[in-house]
Every structure is written in C-alpha cells, then in structure tokens.
Design brief:
It is built from 8 helices and 14 strands. By secondary structure, the protein is α/β, with parallel strands linked by helices. It starts with a strand and ends with a strand.
Length: 230
C-alpha cells in the first residue's frame, strides 16, 4: 500500500512518514501543490492532504489530482483516490468543502498518530470491501472480473483469475496447497495434483511478476505454501 502525503510542515511530514513506514506502508511526500502535481500519478492507495498549502488550496488540489489520475489511466481508474484531509482549522465550512469533493475523513491538528493510523486502516478496509482489491501495482475488480497491472489490463485464464483473487483477498496470510486446492478447484481438487497448482502459480507469476527470479507478489513460504504481500 502506498500513501501520498501532502503537508507543508516538514517536521509533521517527517513524523507521518516514519509512523506510516513503521506501520508497513510505502510513502511519498510533497510539501506544496506544485510538488504534488509533479509527484503523484493517481496510483496512490490513499492521500493525506493538508488543506492550507503555501501555494494553493488542498481541496482544489485533490480535485485536480483525481481528474489527472483518471485522464492518465483511463477507465480502470474510475474510483477516486481516497483522501483524509489534515488542517489546523476546525471550521465547519472547511469540513463541508472537504466532504463535498469526496473526502473519506477529516483530521484537525494536533492529532494522535495512533488515531490517524486507525482512521487510515478503516478507509483502506472500506476501499477493499467496496470491490477493488489492491496489492502494489495490481488491481482486481471482482464484479467485472478484470485485472490491471500498472494501469494496463492483463489477460488471465479462469483458474489464474480465481487463484489471484484468492491471494488478494488473503494478503499477508500463508496459503497451503490444500487451501488453494479447495478454494480454487473446489470439489475437482480431489482429482488435481499439487503439481497442477504449482504450474498455475508459475503461469500467473509470468503475467504479474516484474522478475520471476525474485517475485514480489506471490512468494514461497518454505515448507508451508505461498503468501501474497508482506
């Protein structure tokens, strides 16, 4: 998961980076509207945006980032990037403006880092439950049965798709051969060998891994099975 931080207070920005990385998230940071527009490409899983930036308004910046992200990636990026707005002003009009453009949450400074992390967790869980499954540059749309890698659709067989969806719904968990057979092959799994599972995983890896010798999506867990994600 990659979280974009747009915050002009450099000390706060650094504290956010440290807390997010310790929680297992990837980060990228900008301190101005100009930096944000040149750095972020619409692939972020979540944005933390300071409303009061030195060269512009954070709410309008968010609208622009969403427009440019959709234009850059086309239809695959139909959903807007979730955002949590940060501000030192506890004013109703700021809160309403943020929610009007699709903000997921609104946090007034100073805030507890633990509380912010919990709010981030809730937003990302809500995003996942809403339909899209995300792992790094992979996006899976269960309703449409489509998979995109770096914004480009990839073609999978029925078994490859079911296998990938099962992995993405169970990120971070070790999945055994038995669990994969039961989830992907079902009753037919009684007549399927473990070699068939291995071959299907290898074919799937060829389509999603940037380097087959050093997989970053589906990793072997020696003696146990496989795991997607950290």
């Amino acid at each position: 998961m990659r979280i974009g931080i747009i915050e002009d207070d450099r000390l706060l920005c650094q504290a956010l980076e440290i807390a997010l990385r310790e929680a297992g998230y990837g980060t990228a940071s900008a301190h101005t509207k100009k930096e944000a527009l040149s750095l972020f490409d619409g692939k972020e899983d979540l944005l933390l945006i300071d409303i009061g930036l030195p060269d512009g308004d954070g709410v309008r910046l968010y609208q622009q980032l969403c427009r440019e992200g959709k234009a850059l990636h086309g239809n695959p990026r139909e959903d807007r990037i979730p955002a949590i707005f940060l501000t030192a002003r506890d004013e109703e009009r700021d809160m309403l403006a943020a929610f009007d453009v699709g903000a997921e949450d609104y946090v007034v400074k100073p805030f507890s880092m633990k509380v912010l992390l919990k709010r981030i967790e809730v937003v990302l869980r809500r995003k996942s439950e809403g339909g899209i499954l995300v792992c790094r540059d992979l996006e899976l749309y269960p309703e449409r049965k489509q998979v995109f890698l770096c914004g480009k659709e990839i073609s999978l067989t029925a078994k490859e798709y079911r296998l990938l969806e099962y992995f993405m719904r169970n990120q971070g968990q070790v999945l055994t051969m038995d669990s994969l057979l039961q989830a992907v092959w079902g009753l037919d799994g009684e007549f399927v060998s473990e070699n068939t599972v291995s071959v299907t995983i290898r074919r799937l890896r060829k389509k999603i891994e940037p380097d087959m010798s050093r997989p970053v999506y589906i990793r072997n867990v020696f003696g146990l099975g496989y795991r997607m994600g950290e």
